[in-house]
């Protein structure tokens, strides 16, 4: 990966505390280019990390759904494989695997999906479902409800 083999102009870091978040950006010489401290509250997190008006846009940003190129009803191919946040894709994929490890109901749901789509697509569907759920839980500031998650 060429990104890690070059000298960068700026370096960033986030320091998380119970009451504040500190963001610092340093230039290559080590001088502070930006130093910002914000209160650690759910509203601040939502404003900074969930600027999407709909859950589908968040899923697209997190690379949990495919984007299709269509014109006049004809499929032109897929594109944008590197658009979005790969770290969120990884995080939700890991969350899906951990969720499967702990939940018998999730294992049954995955087994039903595997019959129709195969294991890889079924895991991707579970990760996307978790992503959509997390988006709405953060937006509405609610607690996870297992019955509602498996209702449909």
List keywords for this structure.
152 residues, alpha+beta, three-stranded antiparallel beta sheet, 5 strands
Task: Describe this protein's structure.
By secondary structure, the protein is of the alpha+beta class. It folds into two domains: 9-40, no CATH class; 53-149, no CATH class. The protein has six helices and five strands. A hairpin with a 2-residue loop joins strand 4 and strand 5 (74-78). The longest helix is centred in the C-terminal third of the chain and has 22 residues, at 119-140. The protein is globular. It starts with 9 loop residues before the first strand and ends with a helix.
How much is the average pLDDT?
78
Biggest sheet layout: 3 strands, antiparallel
How many structural domains can be distinguished in the coordinates? 2
The shape is globular
Rg over alpha carbons = 19 Å
Relative helix content: 40-55%
Strand order of the largest sheet: 1-2-3
Helical run tally? 6
Number of strands: 5
